[in-house]
């Protein structure tokens, strides 16, 4: 059997921050999923100047020494390499949408969700509108723009409508400044989401994978939050940056996150809702959702994070490991589905088209 030619698409068209975040996870994936008998790995590295490089490794020195090429030249390289499947490793919005769409145009299959769905999920308000229409409980919210009346009830969550890792997120209470929260959020996006604050019981994340045509929910990951001292997760809970500028994953520290015992009563409730979300959004291959559990045990959908880099430290990888699925088996399963062209979409995509595309308010 010939080796599969697998391309890892790494970097960012937006910022050095996202470049380093992408490189951090992709390097982990390359080191822990390599199988010379099955795959030949290739790397395409995109930088914020929109130039492409094809380095032999993700060592910073190797990337810097590799000549850069334009987009048309990069497409020629991709065609010459005869790539069988692409693994998306870009975390910026263009990387999750436009660059995936490029591979659709080139008819090169890729692991994970489509460019269209990634664009939908990146808009937090629209994603909530879709799952809410399917009967999933979501916090009430509205989208505001610069120049709107920026009023807010207390307590509320204010955050950019398009942003990850809790960048620009604030909890506004009677003792905090709403104007400052809006100013912070607008630093990261032109649309700001104002959301009902859900009283804290717990906060969990649920991964769903497709196996043999069936949806399989993975053990939940729970995050360290406290209603009195730490009611929401912030950027510092997810990523940390060293003095030399390199990034690491604070969320993987055992004091900040842990796997929930599947016998915990909350698991079955969250699993059922996660499957609803997967179907409603029309996900393929895998999905990942964040839920707030209120003091009465009711799960509330917070957002969809529909990507996985297949690094050991990736959330879905860690959940799969807890379920007895090795990273190599998980990776192989996803690659095989992508190569076979199995969309494994369990939702009716017409539902997405029927949702008000502005999604200015939802409940």
Automatic annotation (TrEMBL):
It comes from the Bacteria. InterPro entries: ATP-grasp, ATP_grasp_subdomain_1, Dala_Dala_lig_C. Residues 128-336 form the ATP-grasp domain. GO terms for molecular function: ATP binding; D-alanine-D-alanine ligase activity; metal ion binding. It holds the Pfam family Dala_Dala_lig_C. Keywords: ATP-binding, Ligase, Nucleotide-binding. Belongs to the D-alanine--D-alanine ligase family. This is ATP-grasp domain-containing protein. It comes from Microcystis aeruginosa PCC 7806SL.
